[in-house]
Amino acid sequence: RRIRLLGNGIDLDRFGPPTPEDRAAVRHELDIADGAVVVGAVGRLVEEKGYRELIAAWQRVRAEVPNAVLLIVGPHEPDKADALDAATIAQAEADGVRFLGMRDDVERLYRALDVYVLLSYREGFPRSAMEAAASGLPIIATDIRGCRQVVDDGVTGRLIPVRDADAAAQAIVDLCTDPPLRHTMSAAAIERAATHFDQRNVVSVTLAAYRELLPGRPAVTRADDTTRPA
Questions:
Q1: Angle formed by the axes of helices 165-176 and 51-64, to 10°?
Q2: pTM over 0.85
Q3: Which of 35, 44, 130, 212 suits 124 as a labelling partner, its CA being 20 to 30 A distant?
Q4: What is the mean pLDDT of residues 104-130?
Q5: Are strands 68-73 and 98-101 parallel, antiparallel or unpaired?
Q6: Which residues, 6+ apart, have CB-to-CB distance to 144 below 8 Å?
Q7: What does the DSSP assignment read for 122-188?
């Protein structure tokens, strides 16, 4: 009785499915071939985001889907105990992984993708996955709290075990080689984002909780606050 779930949300005016023209423009900027299947991940370059498993999985994906491209967007954090080391990043780049670094235009980068991947060991309520869903991307994520709130397994994407590079590789290959499935999951992801991840709904729920918890209290703004002691 004392708990209220406020949820989490994103700006659906910023994140949404791309037009064919937008998609083509971003892929051209990134020098991605028209026929490529693009997989993306967004997050800090630390192990808890599952990058070691993703990089290991990519070796198999690249062998089975030669036209697949992996883009990783996120800042290096060398001060973190679990930061990806230079050797791991160099090996990934040798295997064809492209690291785009820190970007402030992720809403544009989602437009170039066909599949989104989030292999975290732990999450709260992952914003990047919500953004990807709103952008119309099927999502492969680990079966953990937070990711389960975003991904409807088998409908908007796939949930796989944590720290399982083989399962990640299989899920990526399955989606990369099945355009109709990607299309179906894309439509479902957009619908789920519209009904579950709109930040305006979160604001409404939050305000309603305050009204319930503070019945009869006058609304006071900073400009006319006369209730504070001198």
A1: 50
A2: yes
A3: 212
A4: 97
A5: parallel
A6: 120, 121, 122, 123, 162
A7: --SS-HHHHHHHHTT--EEEESSTTHHHH--BTTTEEEE-TT-HHHHHHHHHHHHT-HHHHHHHHHH
